[in-house]
């Protein structure tokens, strides 16, 4: 039975994933390379919990924080039974992390890769536990979205799949199991939509507000594609498109020049305060 969950990477996804487990009483350890990132994560979680309390959450904020540990030491994951990896969409960064985790994690520990587009089989090849590597693609915000896309890689064992589905069920998450492919189901479709919306904006076909209003009002989407890109992070959208372009060698995944310009200029969406829309930080 899983008692200790590790979360590696204290960015937007790591913050949400750690909250999701801590809210259901799991001892949860959030790891990042620097204290500054962990301080931001701690503040973000505290803010989210205060907001949840105003909405009548049944999980008091102090209870969530009681189950959380913030650390820069991978060694603190030595007794974890399940670790969710959320680091940046950079293959070399992930390779180095997976190699480092091999020296720390218990033999039976399962690693859930929360990547946007990188094939899970490739991530498993960086380890000696390919049968215990599985894709756990949480949606943003991870502690609120009800469904997780679970990706079965080439060597993922049935025991790993069963354990993962059971664990997700205990934190109130539904699961959809899919086979391994770059971008899986969700991002293989979504990234094309987001990129095409940016192209429309770049061509002056419509404003950002009008593009999004069409999707919200005509199709019933909770938010339009450009607001969705801002929520995900424009850098993550760009990295995902670059992975899809490289993996499929299909020009339909070629990133918009405007998207690349925004990322180069530090306009990354909600996390930077401005992307296609402006946000309070």
Question: Mind explaining what this structure looks like?
Answer:
The chain is of the alpha/beta class. The protein has 2 domains: 4-179, Rossmann fold (3-Layer(aba) Sandwich); 186-272, N-(1-d-carboxylethyl)-l-norvaline Dehydrogenase, domain 2 (Orthogonal Bundle), CATH 1.10.1040.10. 45% of the residues lie in helices and 14% in strands. It has 11 helices and 8 strands. The chain has helices spanning 12-22, 35-54, 61-66, 91-102, 120-124, 158-170, 186-202, 208-219, 225-232, 234-248, 257-264, and strands spanning 4-8, 27-31, 68-71, 82-85, 110-113, 133-137, 147-152, 174-179. Strands 3-2-1-4-5-6-7-8 form an 8-stranded mixed β-sheet. Strand 1 (4-8), helix 1 and strand 2 (27-31) form a beta-alpha-beta unit. The protein is globular. 43% of the residues are buried. The model has no long low-confidence stretch (mean pLDDT 95).
List the helices and strands and how they pair.
Blueprint: E1 4-8, H1 12-22, E2 27-31, H2 35-54, H3 61-66, E3 68-71, E4 82-85, H4 91-102, E5 110-113, H5 120-124, E6 133-137, E7 147-152, H6 158-170, E8 174-179, H7 186-202, H8 208-219, H9 225-232, H10 234-248, H11 257-264
Parallel strand pairs: 1-2, 1-4, 2-3, 4-5, 5-6, 7-8
Antiparallel strand pairs: 6-7
């Amino acid at each position: 039975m899983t008692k200790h969950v590790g979360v590696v990477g204290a960015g937007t996804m790591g913050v949400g994933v750690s909250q999701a487990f801590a809210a259901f009483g799991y001892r949860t350890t959030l790891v990042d390379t620097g204290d500054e990132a962990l301080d931001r994560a701690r503040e973000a979680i505290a803010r989210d919990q205060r907001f949840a309390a105003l909405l009548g959450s049944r999980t008091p904020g102090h209870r969530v924080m009681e189950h959380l540990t913030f650390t820069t030491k991978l060694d603190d994951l030595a007794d974890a039974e399940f670790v969710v990896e959320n680091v940046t969409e950079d293959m070399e960064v992930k390779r180095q992390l997976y190699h480092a985790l091999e020296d720390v994690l218990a033999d039976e520990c399962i690693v859930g890769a929360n990547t946007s587009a990188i094939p899970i089989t490739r991530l498993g090849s960086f380890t000696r536990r390919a049968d215990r590597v599985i894709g756990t693609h949480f949606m943003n915000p991870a502690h609120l979205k009800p469904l997780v896309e679970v990706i079965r890689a080439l060597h993922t064992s049935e025991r790993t799949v069963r354990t993962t589905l059971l664990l997700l069920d205990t934190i109130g998450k539904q699961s959809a199991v899919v086979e391994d492919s770059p971008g899986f189901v969700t991002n293989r479709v979504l990234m094309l939509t987001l990129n095409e919306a940016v192209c429309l904006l770049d061509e002056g076909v419509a404003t950002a507000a009008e593009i999004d209003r069409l999707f919200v009002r005509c199709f019933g989407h909770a938010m339009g594609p450009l607001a969705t890109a801002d929520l995900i992070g424009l850098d993550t959208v760009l990295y995902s498109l670059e992975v899809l372009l490289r993996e499929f060698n299909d020009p339909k995944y070629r990133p918009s020049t405007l998207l690349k310009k925004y990322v180069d200029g530090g306009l990354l969406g909600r996390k930077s305060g401005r992307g296609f829309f402006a946000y309070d930080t």
